[in-house]
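User: quick one - fold this with DAU bound?
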Amino acid sequence: MILVTGGCGFIGSNFILDWLAAHDEPVVNVDLLTYAANPKTLASLAADARYAFERVDVCDGVALKAVFAKYQPRAVVHFAAESHVDRSIHGPMDFVKTNVMGTATLLEASRAHWKSLPDAEAKSFRFVHVSTDEVFGSLGATDPKFNELSQYQPNSPYSASKAGSDHLARAYFHTYGMPVMVTNCSNNYGPRQFPEKLIPLMIVNALAGKALPIYGDGQQIRDWLYVGDHCSAIRRVLEAGRPGELYLIGGDAEKPNIEVVHTICSLLATHAPGNDYLTQITTVTDRPGHDRRYAIDFSKLRRELGWRPIENFTTGLEKTVRWYLENSAWVADVQSGDYLRWIAQNYGARA
Ligand code: NAD
Ligand code: DAU
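Assistant: Sure. Structure tokens for the protein plus DAU:
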């Protein structure tokens, strides 16, 4: 069996659903169920004997030890994190705790488990640490894309805490020989993303007739990847990646934010006609320290492991918009009092 952390969040839930659609190997999902989790996301697995859930904090070493003893996983895929840049600006300490301390605690529990395995099982054990391109900082308009040799230059409390976790993961390979691999991916979008991030926020606000808040000039560029393609890349790294290596994952889909929002508006005009969504676009005060451009050169992953994305931005965004239109109950579920407080805190003070 494999152990997945953060499996009730956006990418982790997509990873578990895709995994169980393709494999019979069981999964144990370790998740604390923070605001970013929706346990109903995996309701379809409630009666599936291949799926187990443990509500555990990755900062809790004692509880993690018990999970490893109970399930004896052959691999760990570590998604659990605080993941939203704007929240890290309002409250960095949660990010330091979960992303740095949580990863350190999980690495320690994994090391104890790995050391207890017979030789052959210890050799095939794998730990995949799921990280972000944001650890490399910000690119200028004509800079070459990030690659595995790019320098770490994190700019936000979120990316700095993820950089800390990447360094710990690397150290466990170099110091202890634990078979750890790190993946650094660009911006994901797709079904089940919490509507605090750009694409789902714009879809749900547009449908509700609310403002579509563009930070600053809207010319910041992100390299968008459909979540199913991120999941297939992680499966490939788990299967055939080399321990100790870093793998960058991207979508070859650099887009300025304003273009992304215009495309969402025109997709909604086709699938949910009624409003003139473009008129809802509003410019608001920029994010402090806002990174200008991310772009990924994923040629190592393509060359060594034969991975490439299946979706392009047009097909992926079409699927995403349709998913949100067909899953309004899921959206209503996550728009709790806590969500509304966050929206007021983050957008209320912006001019
Ligand atoms: P998310 O915020 O949607 O989900 C995070 C999950 O982790 C939630 O289910 C939450 O309950 C859980 N969690 C948080 N703190 C925990 C703790 N202390 N113990 C146990 N569980 C805890 O995040 P996401 O967007 O799915 O991102 C998953 C991972 O992928 C993160 O590590 C993130 O840094 C990385 N990543 C995300 C993107 C992206 O575009 N979303 C891109 C590249 C990398
Ligand atoms: O690059 C990978 C990273 O992508 C992940 O590691 C993070 O977990 C994930 O949140 C994402 O970070 P970003 O900050 O790039 O994503 P976000 O969706 O928050 O914002 C995307 C862009 O849109 C960014 O330039 C900020 C802008 N934006 C965002 C929001 C929420 C707006 O203009 N308005 C908004 O309301």
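One thing worth noting: The CA atoms of residues 15 and 312 lie 19 Å apart.
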